[in-house]
Description:
Elements (H helix, E strand, L loop, with lengths): L1 H14 L4 H24 L2 H32 L3 H5 L2 H15 L9 H9 L15 H37 L8 H12 L12 H37 L28
Helix pairs in contact: 1-2, 1-3, 2-3, 3-5, 7-8, 7-9
Amino acid sequence: MKTSALKKKLYTIIFQSDTKAGRRFDLVLLLLIILSILSVCLESMTAFRRNYYTYIHWAEWVFTILFTLEYLLRIYAHPKPLAYIFSFYGLIDFLACAPTYLSLFFFGAQYLIVVRSLRLLRVFRILKLNRFITEGNILRNALIASTHKITVFLISVLSLVTIIGTLMYLIEGNASGFTSIPKSIYWAIVTITTVGYGDLSPQSPLGQFLASILMIIGYGIIAVPTGIVSVEMAKATDEAKYKCPFCHSPLQNGKANFCSNCGQAQEKK
């Protein structure tokens, strides 16, 4: 019974942020994540690494041990440990700890580059920040709802740059640097996105005319995915307003005083 009560209490603190203890735990974890990412960034700077490597090294081990304890506590407290381990956040929590331990298995100067690559994986700790962004769910839902529209849009854009790239290859040819259709398509993508590297440019009047049309089309195309996602974000935001913040069940247009699913009192918006 004591073990069950302990697990329940740990689960409330670690996995739920609607309690005082849970908010404190999240704030401490957030601070540790930010500090650990900062240490990775500082370690990549030659001057800091030369003068303060020992301190950064020990700090990294402190962060790794703390994140390992957090990971083990999450496994212990979760009612379905395997479900957590193989979940998105479970894998991210594992990646937050694994690289430092993996670096212990590499010995010798010839492996230093490999160790450095493994240690750079610590930057994945930044993904642990996702759990602190409630509004991220709105953005995620908007992106999911926009997937089909954006897919159709991207296919249309790819078709357009393929056609225009092929035409430019026929018009300009090798003399202007358009040595192949793929290279001409690359030029079309750079032009339509208004990046304009300048490594390729049409020389003939007809090619310049076609490039001008593509540039004008590019300005209009940039606005399309933004509009699609903006509309879906507005819809997702409205839906979120009328959902229970505790169990996420739909509410009756925000007029209900209590959630019909979990019974929690609702704040008026």
